[in-house]
Amino acid sequence: MDILVRTDASAVATTAADILARYARAHATIGVATGSTPLATYRELIRRHQAGELSFAGCRMFALDEYVGLDYSHPESYHAVIHRELTDQLDIDPANVHVPDAAADNLQQACRDYEAAIEDAGGIDIQLLGIGGNGHIGFNEPGSSFDSLTRLKTLHPATVRDNARFFDSPDDVPVHVLTQGLGTIRRAGHLLLLATGQAKADAIAAALEGPLSASVPASLVQLHRRATIVVDEAAASGLKNVEYYRFVDENRPEWQQ
Ligand code: PGA
Hints:
Strand content: 15-25%
GO molecular function: glucosamine-6-phosphate deaminase activity; identical protein binding
Bound molecules: 2-phosphoglycolic acid
Distance between the termini: 15 Å
Family: Belongs to the glucosamine/galactosamine-6-phosphate isomerase family. NagB subfamily.
Shape: globular
Pathway: Amino-sugar metabolism; N-acetylneuraminate degradation; D-fructose 6-phosphate from N-acetylneuraminate: step 5/5
Domain Glucosamine/galactosamine-6-phosphate isomerase: 9-228
């Protein structure tokens, strides 16, 4: 794991955008995430695109997850969120932006189709991830199998409460979702996990320095051969080994820069 500690959320976004820009230039397939954490990174990517520095024309994107029971036209469907917050403001072909089809009549088939679409694209080159306060990634709640593929999941009540801020009432938050599995995420070539704020400190400490455990789905990053974790000081505040992570970052060999 490459663990990068940055002063604040804005510096996290700059570092994440630097990493993602390298993939955009290579016309890569990029896995994108919803939630609040990646928004600053998306704004930075859009800024670079609008400044003429970065094109996504040759890229494909796959979202991690989608709510079941929300129409695509609902502003909080992840289909709507990804288009509004990111792809509509870039030059990526909309036909190359994929979100699990949670409006399908046959959800199991929709999950299989999503896995097939990822495979047909040659796999995901880099997968952007946030982390839930309970250690989830995507909507893989505690107890998710490390081998799981895209499937229907039931949200944890804590996640429903967390996400209620996006809806008029907690009762409006869908309880069911389609999400890439941990096995899907694990197959991506590079994992880029972002976390900002004190509320993520315990989850980050458990994921990076606790045991590998299905109870902490984000501990999957410990199994991955190429995982970059970018955190701000607050999210890093529960890490015991942070002196070493900073030392590695400050003494990066030239070939790695
Ligand atoms: P957040 O959500 O970025 O809104 O904190 C992350 C997540 O739950 O995966």
